[in-house]
Structure formats: C-alpha cells, structure tokens
Write a sequence for this structure.
C-alpha cells in the first residue's frame, strides 16, 4: 500500500480519538508520533500497533518537545532515580530523537523492576531511556560519534524529515520495472558498488575503494545510471570494510545529500576505517579523494537500522538487514520492491559458518527472486579449512616460531580478522598449549576491538556473555595483549630480541605499521610471517604468497630491496568469506530458492564457475556481468 505523507496523517486521524492531542512527523522511513500522553499508544493493544498495522509503517513514539527537560536537569533526575548499585559510567543524550543512553555496570538496577525506573525517568524528564552495560574496553570512536550526533541534533532532525518526505512522495506514472547495474566489484575484488534502479527509485548498495589500485580506485560514479549523484534516493552499506564503504565520502563531496542506511556497528567502524584511510594516504604522500569534512557530513546523514528491522528507504522499496557473518555489523540486504512484486537479496561479503565472533550468515528470507552473491572463493577447488583446523595451524606456526626464539608477524585487517586471531591466541595461552609471550597490537586493532565490545548484541551469545561478565574470561582484556602507542614503542619492539607476536595493520601489507616490522624482521630465518586474510592481486602480500624471495620497499623516501628469509605461512581458515562449499550450502539453505543469481566479488573464473554450478544444480538463471553491465530483474 503506497501512501503519501498527507494520506498517512489522514489514516492516523481516523484511528486516534479526538480527545488525544498528538502530532505526526517523519523520521526517514519511520512515522513519528509526538504526544504528551503515551499510555493510549503503547499499552497492550495500543493505538501505535493499530496505526502500524493499518498504514504498514514502523511507528516511533516521541515526547512533545516542550515536555522534555534540558540535559542538565535531566541528568540530575536520572542520577537521583537510578540507584548507586547501577554504577552509572556515562550518559549520552541524543536530542534528535529525544533519547538518553544510560551506560552503567548493572543495567537491571538502572531499568528497575518491570522497567519501573526507566518509565519514571521518561515520565519525569520526557527523555526516552535506553540502558547499556558499560563495555569492558571503552571506544573513543563510539563516544565521539555520540557527541557529534548530539551537537548536530537539529540538522539531523531536519534531514530525517526530508528523507521521509522523499520516501513518501506521490507515485510516479508508468509500469513497474527494476534492474541492477554493476558499478564495481564485478569480475574483480574491491570497490563494491551496485546500483538498483526502478521506475520510482535509484539506490546505491555499497561504495567501496579498490585498495590494490592507486590509478583506478573508485567505482564507476560517472556511469549514466548514477548521475546526477544528488538525485540518488538512498545509499545502503552492507559493512564497513574499505572495499565496500571507503568511497562513500566522495558521494557527499560531489553533491549527494540523501540518507545512508547501515547498522550501528557499520557506522562506527566506517568512521574508524575512513579516517585511517586518509591518515595512511597522507603519510604516503597520496592525494586523498575526500577530506574529514566529507566524512563528518556522512555521519550526519546516517540512519541506523538494526538487524531484522524493516524500514522504507525509497517510495517503492522496503529494506531489511540480517546477519552476514563476515565482520561486526555486516549484513545481507533484502529489498522488497513494489509491494513485493520482486525481492532481491545482496549477500554482501558473507561467512556461512559459525566463528569465534559471529553466527553463520542468515539464510531465512521471506522471499528472494534475485540473489546477488559474492564469489571470492567460488571456483572449483576453493575450499578452506574449518575454524578448528585453522586454530591448529596457528598453534603449529606459533609453536615453531617461539621454539626458534623468533618473532611472528601477522598482517591483519583491524576489523574482524584481528579479533578472531586474538581469541584464538588467547585460547592457546589459556589452555596451556603454548607458553604465553607478549602479543603486540599495532594500528587500529585496539580501537576496533573496543567497538566490538560496544556492540555485544552483534556477537555470538558465548562471546557476548564473556564480555559482560567481570570474571577474567574476557579474551580481549587478557594480560598478554599489549597496545603499541606511538613510534617510540614500535621502535623498541623492533629492537628487542626476545620472542613475541605482532598483530599489525594493514592486512595486505600495502601500508600501515606492519611494514616497519616486516622490513626489520623479514630477513631472519627464525622469524615467521603469517597471513590470515585475503591478499588482493597487486599487493605486496600477494607477491609474498607467490614466493618472491626479495621485494622492493620505500624506506625513508628511497626504494630498497628487502630480502625474505623468514618462514611464510597462510592460514585460510580465518577468512571472513565463505568458500565454495559454504556458498553452495548458503544457496541450498534458502527456501524458496532464487530464480536469478548474479555473481560478483571474484575474478571472471570464480564468478563463472560458481554461476555454472548454481545454474546446473538449481535450474536458475545465473549471471557473471562485467562492470557497467546491467541485469533486468523485473
């Protein structure tokens, strides 16, 4: 059912009794009802549920602005009502949606019996209450984003209203159709970018950078489908890795002012990685395609959407995120087009296997006529070891290296792989399988880990439990993990002759602090270099995997040849991508099966071989398009 904003207000007026005062506004795809009398709306069988059922939209309740206390007075009331046993660590106010986050050691004490304290706070102050457990590692990124959102609340409120007006605009004439255009990551890995066009809407899924290319790093923004950028209706991000979100600020630099839909962890990690991309590029003398102001503008336009929460993102498109199992907050994107005439799922980067960090990717979609699936390891023979085998391989190389009194370098991606390896190493040390040595964390690993700790609901239940219990079982705060703060500490580690393990960014050896350890330790036979993530073609990591005995490196502005004498190892089982077996099992688990499958995020052979196998097995249409090709899906 397609309704304009005026029609929505008319429908609501038919349901709400005349004696109840209220106002209706838009918050992107949500309908916000402002009132001083919450009870008739939120009670059992309340008005909010009836309205939502009638207009088929998500309803959010908001207090009338004149009943909301200012921040200082509300803080005093909260501290008076919440018992000391809750041990409040911080309060975060978001005036855009009139919500206060109470961060404390004992959430149940702050909420009160059957929510009594939270309800009293709302009634007394007007602020909606959300209670979070204080994470075991505090994230500067999360704190900064919350402060920035508070400071820009007025602008964000106006933006949400504008997004909503666009979503609920009048219907355009003409027949219904939809197509997907490849703007990046087709027959290649990197710069993921899909463009969904319907007769009503224009939606971009992912906006990545090709990390392995300095000459052609961007998606095809100049394709006719994408221009003009300011007329794109929405941008959706599957996850925060640079090859999926690294070029988002470019859209804002060149005129896009619409919403960016992503999960809260993706929002936080995206800021961390984009900022580091600028920092690393600047240190290497590369001209960045955007600056910090473009990143800040992105943040003002982000609309948070949790897993399994359906929201309207365009006049004829509803979207639902679900777990993709790849990194923190990574999501498959389900798009319901034209009231269900066609359903398309973008798998994003996904892992169909339970890991230390995440549950296996979700395969339960209400409907899916078209699946767009990654093919990173889609070719025949692309089989990876299990997580158990990967743990054993890690134990073996750690043991061999330490027996030689050597040092182990693990180039890691700050997000995902580093936390997996940390947990695996922690398990080796705690179990007594390996005698503990210092494990140095260099680059953004510590901050990325803190962001993981800030979003426990996106982790496995076992890991969430270990993070929330103060019993010494938290793997991220074990004593052997030590953060490298600054160049002086890095230099002292390099000069120290005692055995150790270093986890350092970047994961493909294409810049970052890992280069310092590699150039100093790579020549010694007693040391080891262990890859735990994908190495893209054209990177130093891929050249080393191919067996190069010496490689050129930029050292103090000069090109020098570094000899490679250390032991080399690759552990594929830590990959955040599904292998061929898991990709096939993912599709096999879907019910009903898609009629069309589009393969991307892999070279020509991987996309083609995966497509052929799926076509033969499920009698569906499969496609392995090149960049700039279009597939009509409706």
């Amino acid at each position: 059912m397609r309704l304009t904003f005026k029609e929505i207000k008319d429908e609501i007026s038919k349901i709400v009794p005349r004696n109840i005062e209220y106002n209706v506004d838009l918050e992107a795809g949500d309908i916000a009802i402002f009132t001083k009398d919450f009870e008739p709306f939120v009670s059992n069988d309340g008005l909010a549920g009836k309205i939502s059922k009638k207009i088929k939209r998500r309803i959010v309740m908001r207090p009338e602005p004149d009943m909301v206390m200012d921040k200082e007075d509300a803080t005093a009331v909260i501290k008076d009502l919440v018992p000391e046993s809750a041990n409040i660590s911080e309060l975060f106010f978001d005036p855009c949606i009139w919500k206060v986050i109470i961060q404390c050691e004992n959430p149940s004490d702050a909420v009160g019996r059957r929510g009594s304290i939270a309800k009293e706070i709302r009634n007394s102050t007007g602020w909606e209450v959300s209670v979070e457990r204080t994470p075991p590692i505090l994230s500067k990124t999360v704190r900064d984003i919350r402060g920035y959102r508070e400071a820009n609340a007025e602008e964000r409120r106006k933006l949400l209203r504008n997004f909503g007006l666009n979503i609920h605009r009048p219907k355009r004439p003409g027949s219904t159709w939809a197509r997907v255009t490849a703007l990046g990551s087709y027959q290649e890995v990197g710069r993921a970018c899909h463009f969904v066009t319907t007769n009503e809407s224009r939606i971009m899924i992912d906006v990545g950078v090709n990390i392995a290319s300095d000459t052609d790093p961007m998606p095809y923004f100049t394709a006719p489908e994408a221009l003009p950028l300011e007329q794109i209706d929405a941008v959706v991000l599957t996850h925060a890795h640079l090859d999926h979100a690294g070029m988002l600020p470019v859209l804002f630099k060149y005129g896009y002012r619409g919403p960016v839909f992503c999960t809260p962890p993706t929002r936080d990690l995206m800021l961390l990685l984009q900022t580091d991309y600028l920092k690393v590029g600047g240190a290497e003398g590369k001209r960045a395609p955007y600056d910090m102001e473009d990143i800040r503008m992105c943040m003002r336009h982000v609309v948070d959407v949790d897993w399994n929460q359906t929201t309207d993102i365009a006049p004829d498109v509803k979207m639902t995120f679900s777990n993709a199992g790849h990194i923190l907050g990574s999501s498959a994107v389900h798009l319901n087009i034209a009231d269900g005439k066609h359903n398309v799922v973008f798998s994003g980067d996904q892992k169909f296997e339970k890991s230390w960090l995440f549950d296996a990717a979700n395969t339960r979609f209400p409907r899916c006529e078209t699946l767009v699936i990654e093919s990173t390891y889609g070719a025949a023979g692309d089989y990876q070891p299990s997580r158990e085998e990967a743990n054993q391989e890690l134990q073996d190389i750690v043991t061999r290296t330490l027996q030689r009194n050597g040092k182990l370098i693990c180039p890691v991606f700050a997000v995902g792989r580093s936390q997996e390896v940390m947990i695996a190493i922690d398990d080796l040390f705690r179990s007594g399988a390996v005698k503990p040595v210092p494990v140095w964390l260099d680059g953004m690993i510590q901050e990325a880990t803190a962001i993981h700790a800030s979003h426990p609901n996106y982790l496995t239940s076992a890991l969430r439990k270990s993070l929330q219990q103060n019993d010494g079982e938290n793997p991220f705060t074990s004593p052997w993990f030590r953060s490298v703060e600054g160049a002086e500490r890095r230099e002292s580690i390099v000069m120290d002759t005692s055995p150790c393990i270093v986890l350092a960014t970047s994961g493909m050896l294409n810049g970052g602090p890992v280069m310092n350890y590699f150039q100093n330790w790579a020549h010694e036979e007693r040391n080891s270099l262990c890859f735990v993530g994908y190495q893209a073609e054209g990177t130093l990591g891929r050249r080393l995997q191919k067996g190069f005995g010496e490689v050129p490196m930029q050292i103090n502005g000069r090109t020098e040849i570094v000899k490679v004498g250390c032991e080399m190892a690759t552990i594929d089982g830590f990959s955040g991508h599904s292998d061929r077996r898991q990709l096939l099992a993912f599709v096999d688990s879907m019910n009903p099966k898609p009629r069309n499958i589009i393969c991307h995020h892999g070279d020509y052979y991987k996309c083609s071989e995966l497509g052929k196998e799926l076509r033969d097995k499920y009698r569906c249409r499969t496609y392995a398009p090149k960049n700039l090709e279009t597939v009509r899906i409706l």
Remarks:
- The chain has a mean pLDDT of 93.
- Residues 264-283 form the longest helix (20 residues).
